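User: Please predict structures.

Assistant: First:
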Amino acid sequence: MSDLTRLSADTMAQQLVSGQITSVELTQAHLDRIADVDRAVHAFLHVSSEDALSAAGDVDARRAAGETLHPLAGVPVAVKDVVVTRGMPTTAGSKILEGWVPPYDATLVEKLRAAGMPILGKTNMDEFAMGSSTEHSAYGNTHNPWDLDRIPGGSGGGSAAAVAAFEAPLAIGTDTGGSIRQPGAVTGTVGVKPTYGGVSRYGLIAMASSLDQAGPVTRSVLDAALLHEVIGGHDPRDSTSLPDPVPALSAAARLGAQGDLTGVRVGVVNELSGEGYQAGVSARFEESLDLLRAAGAEIVEVGCPSFRHALSAYYLIMPSEASSNLAKFDGMRFGLRVEPEDGPVTAERVMAATRGAGFGDEVKRRIILGTYALSAGYYDAYYGSAQKVRTLIQRDFDAAFASVDVLVSPTSPTTAFRFGEKLDDPLAMYLNDIATIPANLAGVPGLSVPNGLSDDGLPVGFQILAPARADDRLYRVGAALEAALEAGWGGPLLAQAPELEIAR
């Protein structure tokens, strides 16, 4: 493997500025890595070699001409296939959008391009972001680089696997109930869900509009902060976009890396641990708490009783919003169109044939759940009640943050499971997001940082939650824990991952 692909994005950026490497060299190294291993990993649905090298060459020319560029200019990035990209296919992992090439860029993609970051391609995902394992993609499974027989998490398993396999130094994911953080936990990468509205949703193919949020997938907390600063900020095209400027996130990460958390109060959420959590996950969590104490943090227990009902509320609110958002995929305007094999060709029959052929089983399951929850006679009992629970969860967060600076828990209750292990049991699959869902319901930011290996030799994650608009706290505490962990490991956790066989 090229040593270039092993560098942190921050180090890549420094070497680009100093002239030690060029963006073309760096981008080509990652394209070569994709060619070597992605046949085994299948992190990418589309690789944009020509466009990425063209963007890299432009950055090199501008830098050589003395132009002042963005700090990350020339560092390549991968983008989850639920984010629209002009000139590149965007499928959301679904046959119903197979071959669709959008005529415009999402706001966050505009920001990546404006920063001079070559886009390597689009990453695989559960169809329409519905899943926790990337087994629901219409284009095949993505494999976990730690063990190719295991899932990389979901729905953003492609982005996490690409970063973990050193195919990309940075990636964009989206998180509706844990789809950045849970893949981060099971692949040994850093995943961040920003405050709701902190990154524009314009150009994201919506699943659940009140829950969806794009964010960074990286190999270090500082790299995540740097990417977050690129894509964050107000966007008038998104009615839910916050007017606030992006906080000084990279400064918070650099401060945290110094290892001093004196005066920081860390709340351990009682309802997000204990029974149902794998023994190795719980052990690494307790060890991480000890490291935070050693850094000067005060650790206290916090009760958030409504969190016990978060999963139930989420699986009423999310499918209800999804059933509404996915109504646009009707075979009439864009994407797949399937006409009935016999009988009259009516709008209703074309819509039924198209949606029947174009949507996978998990998407159909959630559309049916959501449509039922919104139907006459059931709206108040199901969707309305779930929204009341959501309010209680938000109040629990408010009460907790009145006494602590951040809340913590394991990110995922288990390590990566084998393919097929939970496909026939939707509830078991849904439980993978039990610790991540509350943050989406309340709109607060969350970060998952790798905090070691379980007894099965697979990575686990440590989740940090902060109040809305206080994303900088995530980066300070996350960087402090990361520094303490890596001091004990003698380097990043991914250095312990088995090397992938070259597929070429």
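Second:
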Amino acid sequence: MNQTLPLTNIPQELKLILELLRNQHDDQSEESWVNYTRSIDWNHFFKLAMHHRVYPLLHVKLNENKKLKIPKAVSEKLKAQYEHNTIKMLYLSGEMEAVSTLFLGENIPTLFLKGPVIAEHLYQNLSLRTSSDLDFLISIEHLQKAEELLVSLGYEKDDYIQTVLGDWKWRHHHVTYFHPIKRIKLEIHWRLNPGPSSEPQFKELWSRKRLSTVTSSPVYFLGQEDLTVFLISHGARHGWSRLRWLADIHQILNQDIEWKLVYNLFKKHSNYHVGGQALLLVKACFQSSIPEGAHKFFITKKAKRLAQGAFYYLEQMINLHTEPLAEDISAYHSRHLFSLMSTQQKAWFLLSFLYPYPEDAETLPLPSYLHFFYFPLRPVLWAWRKTRKQVFS
């Protein structure tokens, strides 16, 4: 099977960014950089660097390569953003250590998922990866106690989750807290990904935990193979719409990975074709070498189709975190997410529509002890809402 995925339709500015981010450079690549600069929109170049959250890496790469001349204003803005990110990552590291110490002291095992621990582990430098918040995973049984602890620290809960019949436990996977003075956002996860889906239990993940070297007090994060599966699943769920997530996978490929274990984890809990999608994308974008152990498990025709589908997000500057999404983008993303699922996942996803939604309780409010009636009433309430929407549209 031809593994080559051409980057034909992505912007020239993004092609230049990719050239710069690749670890290996030679005279030919440097010559291509010079050719790129003749038609580069430098404002768009900077916007893409910010959107894809790769500006720290770009700043370092540009300092290493003195042959590429870019406008001074652009290099100065990249430098300023790099310095700002360094300060922020150090700030987040301090808060991460404080939260970890508090939670572990209260017998709440805590696994940090991203942020400073990943920057240090993947890049050996806090400054080279960005993070807007701190994400950590705990067992669902500790959620109430965790909330009490965060409130005691001055955090306020973003109570955006609407629920009926306990669907929050599997339809959602995290809740957000914000500190109005520290200006720090925390996300407490009780699942790695939203449901309906299968994933390892917390005790299993905790048994494979690793100790971070970022802080002096203990901070734990996912084991190597668990982290690989999580970062791939997370990036795929967001359409790989930011290069930072692919840069993470590029870094992972340079580490010692038990690819058979990664494959078994995907096969048991998810869709291993998603792993193939990530590997093909990182090969296309970063010219990464796919280890033989990974190649034989993950590279399939379906993986290639999924990778080609993800180019949609790179060809445009799509921000899936900005609501509301344009209708065409929302529709494409929904189809792409469905295409990522295994047959079993698709079946569970479709069956989940039969489980009551909070909208059903809004349409027909019932006392909590009668909420079980929403199961037989669900198709009727759904049809009623759809009919009224059509009438008033």
